[in-house]
Specification:
single chain, about 80 residues, mainly alpha
Length: about 80
């Protein structure tokens, strides 16, 4: 089932690329809108959200090598805060 899903996703990606490459108007629209869309994202906020997801996942993990609170503290301090 995973292989079939992967093949379908790859086929859809190829179709999307072909559409962009073969339609200059679509390519230009995507180019013009790309910068404004990218400005909507904040890397620091994205990194904090990612760490929150990892922390939540670790809450369900068995104790052992997956828990590294020191590493998380180091990463979040680089993002401008303590433990989030």
């Amino acid at each position: 089932m995973k292989t079939r899903t992967s093949l379908i996703l790859c086929a859809l990606a190829v179709l999307a690329l072909v559409a962009v490459l073969s339609r200059p108007a679509l390519r230009e629209t995507l180019r013009q809108n790309g910068s404004s869309e990218a400005k909507k994202f904040d890397w620091t906020l994205s990194a904090r959200r990612c760490l929150d997801v990892y922390s939540s996942a670790l809450a369900f993990a068995p104790p052992g090598r997956w828990h590294a609170p020191g590493n998380r503290r180091t990463v979040t301090s680089r993002l401008g805060g303590g433990m989030a």
